[in-house]
Amino acid sequence: MSIEQGYIALAILALLWAGMIIGLSFIATPVKFRAKSLERKAAFDVGRVTFRLFSRVEMVLAVLMLIVAWLAKPEGTLTLLIGLILLVIIVQGAWLTPYLVRRAAAVIEGHEPPKSQAHMLFVSAEVLKLLALVALGATLLLGVSQ
């Protein structure tokens, strides 16, 4: 794989991943909670299952990104963006997603957990990850086209 092919593969991966985040976190999830016919417990159950699965999908995407990055050998800003994306994935996968899944399980069981800033931290992490993925994809594509 040439460096140019690696950069194109990284760009495709980053932008595909960004699209998945937009679809799941910023469109499907908020809309689910606006559906009047969907009970709150059911919405939390769907969210819990969806985000647990998507966390696993993101781990696979992160491993793919590492493999392609190892082959393409990006430098400078590209390496920083990849590192930021991976750091967010680690924080979400190791702490935020499991914590929010437990909170959702409590709601499903009929308990109301105490207030927490974890959801806002998760949303902030999603925005940061999305911006880093778009910046990575755009930087790679613009660099390859020159």
3D architecture notes:
This protein is mainly α. The chain has one domain (3-145). It is 84% helix and 0% strand. It has four helices and no strands. Helix 1 (3-32) runs antiparallel to helix 2 (40-72), helix 1 runs antiparallel to helix 4 and helix 2 (40-72) packs antiparallel against helix 3. The radius of gyration is 17 Å and the shape is elongated. The model has no long low-confidence stretch (mean pLDDT 93).
List the defining traits of the structure above:
single chain, 146 residues, mainly alpha, 4 helices, 84% helix
Brief characterization of the structure:
Helices cover 84% and strands 0% of the residues.
Map the helices and strands.
Elements: H1 3-32, H2 40-72, H3 77-108, H4 118-145
Name the structural class. mainly alpha
The rounded Rg comes to: 17 Å
Mean pLDDT: 93
Portion of residues within helices: over 70%
Q: Would you report the number of β strands?
A: 0
Instruction: Please indicate the count of domains.
Output: 1
Total helical elements: 4
The backbone outline, from C-alpha atoms, is: elongated
Low-confidence stretches: none
Which oligomerization state do the chains in this entry correspond to?
single chain
The termini sit apart by: 19 Å
The major sheet is characterized as: none
Content of β-strand: under 5%
The helix/strand order is: HHHH
